[in-house]
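Format notes (please read before filing issues)

Several people have asked whether sequences and structure tokens are stored in separate files. They are not. Every record keeps both together, in the order shown below: the sequence lines, then the token lines. Line labels are part of the format and must not be stripped during preprocessing.
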Amino acid sequence: MQLDSIWRYPVKSMVGETIPSGRFTEAGLLGDRGWAVRDEERGGIRGAKKIGSLMRLAARYDDEPTVESPVRPVTMTLPGGREISSAAPDVDETLSQALDHSVTLWPLQPPDDLDHYRRGAADSDDLMEELRDIFGREEDEPLPDLSVFPPEILEFESPPGTYLDAYPVLVMTTTAMDALARELPNSVIDVKRFRPNLLIDTSDLDDPGPAGHPELAWEGRTLAVGEVELELVTGCPRCVMVTREIDEAIPVDRSVLRHVVSDLDQLVGMYARVTTPGTVFPGDEVQLR
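Then the structure lines:
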């Protein structure tokens, strides 16, 4: 196995960027989810689970983040191609217009600023209805096992000090992408839907794993990627985000989530923690230990 590509997402829920190398610290990929939008209507940091049109925007760093300065200014590309800098005085107004929702753009705040990370108001007083909306589940479909998530995300939108959904790193394989394409021949299967940090080339694997998703059998093991080691924690329960429109070439597609829920036990990709920091490059050897 070898590393196919490295994906970083400068702004939570916007389309990210592939990068020629990735520096991993114990907190995850340097610069990943360095920014997010705050919902000025219902409060709280929001991603595309709630503001789906975020996935129609893309973001890139103007300068490479460093350990000393991990959150640098970003340039965001809006639908239609207009670009705007995070430093622009009208950035909040412009993003609000593009998203048709009142938002403000925020860099990461200190982890002790708990009010910043606290969840905003729900859209429904019915908890089950709220969860089904977030996870995109039909009435007869099960909700994910929420016990796999860090307990703090019940109160906070993300672990305080981060804009992550749950864990620092998401790993996927090319074998899994191929399996999705085979099972969903009428769908656009693009890595942008699934938002991994590391895409592993598993074309040389003899065992394609459960339903063609080998990473789902790796829970509890160590993945060595170049000089970096990752603890593989749990499969990633998928939500409504994998159905969202990204652009004309990647349209709304609810059948993707229907397949994931019914045939893949709701999981695509594997969450991981960094146990040995370092830098990785596409083409690095990948070993499962």
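For reference, the curators noted about this record: The chain has six helices and 17 strands. The domain at 2-288 is CATH 2.40.33.20 (M1 Pyruvate Kinase; Domain 3).
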